[in-house]
Amino acid sequence: MIIIILGVLCLVFFIENARELRTFRIRTYRIFSHKLKGIQKKRIVFLSDLHNCSYGKNNGRLLAAVRRSRPDLILIGGDMLVRKNGTSYAKTLKFLTRLTAMCPVYYANGNHEQKLKEEPERYEQSYAAYKKHLEEAGIIFLENEAVIWKTGRARIRISGLEIPLSAYEKLGKRKLSVRQIEDRIGRSDPSYQILLAHNPAYVQQYEAWGADLVLSGHVHGGLVGLPWIGGVISPDFRLFPAYSAGIYRDPKTDVVVSRGLGIHSVPIRFMNPAELVVLELRGDD
């Protein structure tokens, strides 16, 4: 009997895992702040961790979902490709370049893009070509840089943060200080601060820096999601990461961690569907 039960559970796991690897959902969060003056509803689509995966021919299903979301702005949180020599990024490039017809698009790197950039000889200069292609299509990269988005009576600063690659090390002791963040993107100011920070392991430092809204990914939802517990394991092999998926509300900071849109290396998703994140910004004045 035990063998039969285990067999059924394994079958359920493999069927559901296969289903979740082929599909995605749209997840919407409402963000309120007194700093968002005069904003009734502005919609931001947040894309993260596609990892060169595809939903339909030329990512048609994903593109249609973005279009249906009617974004005023698209923010990309990194790891849209896979750090690997000999990999074609054509389908990802085709998808991303079509986004600029809808609204402005800003792109902050994840650890995969950052590794390609910082080790060009090892990765055949592929990052330079990738970035050039997207910039020519109108996508703006935020590599430890910021832009100001004025909408309504609000002044919104959008910063793209690249932390040291050592801060992604597996199993090692994590180190990142507020000073290191300031050295990269400067100090926060009275504007509403949106921080694109790929790795959610450093939320406390992002909050101390002054972020009003942190947008992260990287963890892929913890691969397997457990009710009332959350994700099981992070890409750096840490069990039950504190921030794996969803929205975490603090008096000063909202943190949104996307489950991501793709996978790499370990093809597992269980009770952890891929997602496209939509943010509705509203002033509470």
UniProtKB/TrEMBL annotation:
Residues covered by the Calcineurin-like phosphoesterase domain: 43-221
Organism domain of life: Bacteria
UniProt keyword list: Hydrolase, Metal-binding
Coiled-coil regions listed: none
Gene Ontology molecular function: any one: metal ion binding
Keyword Metal-binding: yes
GO biological process, one term: lipid A biosynthetic process
SUPFAM superfamilies in UniProt: Metallo-dependent phosphatases
PANTHER family given in the database record: PHOSPHODIESTERASE YAEI, TRANSMEMBRANE PROTEIN WITH METALLOPHOSPHOESTERASE DOMAIN-RELATED
Name recorded for this polypeptide: Metallophosphoesterase
